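Project channel, design review

CF: Before we commit to the Streptomyces ehimensis constructs, I'd like one complete example in the thread so the newer folks can see what an input/output pair looks like. Taking Rv3235 family protein.
RD: sounds good, go ahead.
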Amino acid sequence: MNGNRGPAGPGPAAPPRRTDSRRPAADAAARRHERERRHPRYWFAERLLLTLSGQRPVHWMLGHTLPPAYDQLAELAPGAPLRPVPPGHGIPFVRHCDEFQPRPGVIEAFARIASGDRLRALAFRLEHCPDRRWRCAAVELGGART
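CF: and here is what came back for Rv3235 family protein:
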């Protein structure tokens, strides 16, 4: 026997490739998850966006913020400053996020939040706490630009 399995060649044929329209979205979600795992700034930018756009309640951030930042969120969130304007015209998303590390254990990050033709700036500070978790220590929101 030569190892071939019949006329089809050595082994079973590969299954046909799926042409599922959801695949690009799944790939994008996997890339986003990997990026968030490696860079806490993206993880926090996404969650701050969800809170400040009214998609999640402020208390959703309780374990992820230090008291001053939580107070800032509680003050900003009721107005949902990052909600789509006009309503229904594009879900806001993190267009870009970057960071500066002034010292070990501290990240000063900024994100550009896009919604339709609007662009907003979001700045936040992360601190690596004694329990080895990153927590948001401050939040600041910039004005809208078109």
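RD: helpful, thanks. DSSP finds three helices and four strands in the chain.
CF: The radius of gyration is 22 Å.
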